[in-house]
């Protein structure tokens, strides 16, 4: 059975958000949807624009009969792993996250994503 636009929109495509240090703002892309890229002044606006771009990209691909790759399954990954780090690094992460007003978990996720882990 042929998948519809809503079928594809319901799938969780991986989204990459990169800060544009030269122009300002953020660039968002979907690695599984070649050429589907958008941007915005803030992370929130960039993501909102990217969701619109994804919908338009998928609609155009369906209309033109372009093969649409389904997203890689994340079911094999729990989203958690244990990491042993030196106490001095633990303290540094705790201090920085507190200064940013976010949890240490959020801060570490930010650092890992920023550094293209």
From TrEMBL:
Coiled-coil ranges (or none): none
InterPro entries membership: Arc_rbn_hlx_hlx, HicB-like, Ribbon_hlx_hlx, TA_system_antitoxin, TTHA1013/TTHA0281-like
Pfam families recorded: HicB_lk_antitox (PF15919)
Domain HicB-like antitoxin of toxin-antitoxin system: 17-79
GO annotation terms (biological process): regulation of DNA-templated transcription
PANTHER family cross-referenced by the UniProt entry: ANTITOXIN HICB, UPF0150 PROTEIN SSL0259
Protein name: HicB-like antitoxin of toxin-antitoxin system domain-containing protein
Organism the protein comes from: Oribacterium parvum ACB1
């Amino acid at each position: 059975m042929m998948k519809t636009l809503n079928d594809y929109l319901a799938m969780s495509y991986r989204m990459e958000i990169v800060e544009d240090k030269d122009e300002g703002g953020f660039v968002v892309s979907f690695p599984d949807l070649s050429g589907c890229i958008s941007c915005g002044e803030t992370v929130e606006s960039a993501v909102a624009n990217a969701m619109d771009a994804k919908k338009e990209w998928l609609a155009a691909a369906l209309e033109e009969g372009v093969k649409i790759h389904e997203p890689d399954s994340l079911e094999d990954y729990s989203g958690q792993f244990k990491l042993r780090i030196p106490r001095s690094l633990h303290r540094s992460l705790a201090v920085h996250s507190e200064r940013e007003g976010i949890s240490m978990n959020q801060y570490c996720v930010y650092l890992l994503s920023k550094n293209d882990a």
